[in-house]
Amino acid sequence: MSYVVPKESFNGKVLSVDFGKDDKAISVGGENCLPFLSFEGDLPNRPVIAYEIQDCPPDDWPDTVKDVYKDVSGDPVTWAKHCQDNLNAKAIALRLVSTHPDRDNRSAEDAAKTIKDVLAAINVPLIILGSNHIEKDSAVLVAAAEAASGNNCIIGKAQEGNYKTIVAAALAHNHKLIAMSELDINLAKQLNILITQMGFDKSKLLTDPMCSALGYGLEYTYSVMERIRLAGLAQNDQTMQPPILGDVGIYVWKVKEVVAPEADLPEWGALEERGIAWEAVTATSMITSGTNLLIMRHPKAIETVEKTIEELT
Amino acid sequence: MIIIGEKISVIAKQVREAMDSRDPKPIQELADKQWKAGAHFIDVNIGPAEDKGEDLMKWMVESIQQTVKAPLCLDTTNASALEAGLTVHNNEWGKPLINSTSNDPERFGMLELAAKYNAEIIALTVGKGGLPADAEERCGIAAEIMARAAEFGVPLEDIYLDPLILQVCTTQDQAMHSIKAIQMFQELNDPPMKTVVGLSNISNGVPKEMRSLIDRVYLTLLMYEGLTAAIANPLDKDLMDVVKTTDVFMNKTLYAHSYLEM
User: Fold this and answer.
1) Which residues of A touch B (CB under 8 A)?
2) Model's pTM, two decimal places?
3) Does B253 reach chain A within 8 Å, measured CB to CB?
4) CA distance A3 to chain B (A)
5) Are A55 and A155 a contacting pair, CB within 8 Å?
6) What 3-state DSSP class applies to A105?
7) Quick check: B105 pLDDT over 80?
8) pLDDT one-digit tens code per residue, A2-23
9) Phi, psi (rounded to 5 degrees) for A166
C-alpha cells in the first residue's frame, strides 16, 4: 500500500485585505490553510514586508539600523522615496513618532501634512501608525486618515482605549484598520467584535496581537498568532479571520542583543550581523505562525526574510 | 454545535395554513428568523403529505432558499416528495439533510435517495418493532444501518445517528440511555460517527413553562458527550446562549466577553 500524505483541510478562511492604489495595490491573507502548507489548501498571497520609516530622525534606533538610513532619515519624504526607489519596498509604514507627548508632541495638523507630503512622493501602499499614545493617537490618526483619504491606506493602531474614534475615521475615509491588543487572544477577539459592531467591515481589518523579539517573549506572540489562525481556520471563527500584522522592527531594535558591542561580548559575534539576524529570525518565526504583513527596519533583514518567503512558497 | 431549526412544521397552524394556500411569506419569515438566530439547517417538515407532496416540497424548498442561504433538512415520510425536494435543493451553502431513515425496511429508500443526490441523512436507531430498550440496543441497530448504508453507497460521514429521544415525563430512565448512546455511537467508526437528536422530544408532555429549561439542560449533557447536531428551536434565546456557552467550555469557540452576541 502506498503512503498517502495526511492532509488537514479547514472550513474557515483568512480574509483577503488589499491596500494601496492602482497597480501598486497589495493583497494579504486569503489562505484556507496554515502558513506555507500549499499542499493542504490555497495561499493566494505571500506575506508582505513593509519598510518602517518615521516622521523624525531615528535618534533612538541602534547604530546598526540608524546608519543605513543616515543620508535620508532627516526627512520622511526622502526616506520614503529611498525605500521605494532604491530598496524596492513593496509597502511603507510611516510611524508618527514625533506626535508623542514625550517626544516632540507635534500636532495632528503637522502629522496630516507629513502624510500628504509622503503620499505625494510615493506610489507604493502606505501604512500609517500613531505613536502608541492612547489619547494622542485618537487625534493624530483621525487627522491622518483624512489627509490620506482616497489612498486606501492601513491606519492604526486601534486599541481598547481609543478604537471608537479611530474606527470612525477609517470608516469615513475608507481605510483599512489595525486592531491591536496586548498578547491576549481573548481580548484580540473582543476588540474585533467591538469594532465590527460599530459597522466596520471585518474584511477591512488586520489583527495585531502584539509582537515581541526573540528572547523577549517571542514564544507568547508565536502561540497567540497560531491560536488566532487556528480559531479562524479550524473553528471557522469569523471574528478571528482578519490577516495578522507583525510589527517586528520596533520590538527587535531595542533589545540587548542588537546593541551590546562586540568588544564587551566577543562570544556574541559581530554586532551588525547579530542585529540583522535577530530581526530576520524574529520575523521568520512570525510568518511561520501566520503573520501576513510584517513591518521591519533593516534592509538586509528584510532581504533575508523575503528570500525565505520565496523559498517556502 | 449544529442547530437544525425546527419551527417550519406542518404541526404549526400558521405554517400549515401557509402551505395550504401556497403563501410563501410566513414560511420565509420563519426561515429567516431561525437562520439569523444561528440555525445551520432549516428543517422543512411537511408531514406525510399524501396529496401532491412532490409539488409541496418543491415549493417549500424553493421558497425558503430564495430567502435563506442555508442547506435544508427535508423532513417527510413521503419518499417521492422528499426526492422532489432534493431535485430543486440549492447545494451552494451545503448538502441537504434527509430526515430520516431507520432500520425499518420501509425507510431504506431514503438511503437510496441520499446516495443518489449526495445528501446527508439522519438515521433513527429504531427498527420495525418496538422502541430500543437501552444504549446497547441502539448501537446494535446503528451498526445494522451503517452496514445497510454501505450497501447503498452512502459514506458514513454523511450519516447522523439519532438515538431517539423519549419524553422524560413518562420514560425517565431513557434520558440517560440516550446520552450514553451518543457517546457509544461515536465509537462505531473512526473518524467518529456524527450524532443528532430531536431535542424537544425530551420535554414533550411537561408543562409549557418548563420545556425550555428541560431542553437546554439536557442539551448540555448531550453536548458534553460529543453530540454533533440538534433539531431544536433557535428562537429560544436561553437555549442558544447555553449552546454558545457550552461550546466555549468544550473549546469549540474562543472566549471573548461578547461571545453571546456572536
Assistant:
1) 185-187, 189-190, 193-194, 197, 227, 231, 235, 237-240
2) 0.89
3) yes
4) 19
5) no
6) coil
7) yes
8) 888 888 899 999 999 999 999 9
9) -70, -40
DSSP, collapsed to helix, strand or coil, labels residue B100 as strand
CB neighbour burial string for B140-168, b if at least 16 within 10 angstroms, e if fewer = ebbbebbebbeebebebebbbbbbbbbbb
* Residue A14: Cβ-neighbour burial (10 angstroms; 0-12, 13-18, 19+): buried
- In Å, how far are B10, B45, B236 from B49, measured between CA atoms? 9, 10, 28
Q: What do you get for the CA distance between the two ends of chain A, in Å?
A: 30
What's the pLDDT tens digit per position in B233-262? 999 999 999 999 999 999 999 999 999 998
Best residue in B40, B244, B254 for a mutation probing chain A (most A CBs within 10 Å)? B254
State how far the Cα of A229 lies from the Cα of A244, in Å rounded to an integer.
9
CA distances from A242 to A25, A279, B64, B163, B244 (A): 18, 24, 31, 40, 22
A288: burial class by Cβ within 10 Å (0-12, 13-18, 19+)?
middle
CATH of domain B2-250: 3.20.20.20
Whole-Å CA distances, A245 to A232, A282, A288, B71? 15, 13, 13, 35
3-state secondary structure of B230: strand
The identity of residue A295, as a single letter, is I
Q: What cell does A70 get?
A: 543616515
Grid coordinates in use for B72? 435544508
Which chain A residues contact residue B252 at CB under 8 A?
235
Domain ranges of chain A: 16-312
Neighbours of B7 (CB within 10 A): 21
Q: Give A15's DSSP letter.
A: P
CATH number for the domain whose boundaries are A16-312: 3.20.20.20
Closest chain A residue by Cα to residue B247? A235
CA distance, residue A218 to nearest chain B CA (Å): 22
DSSP string spanning B112-135?
A: HHHHHHT-EEEEES--SSS---SH
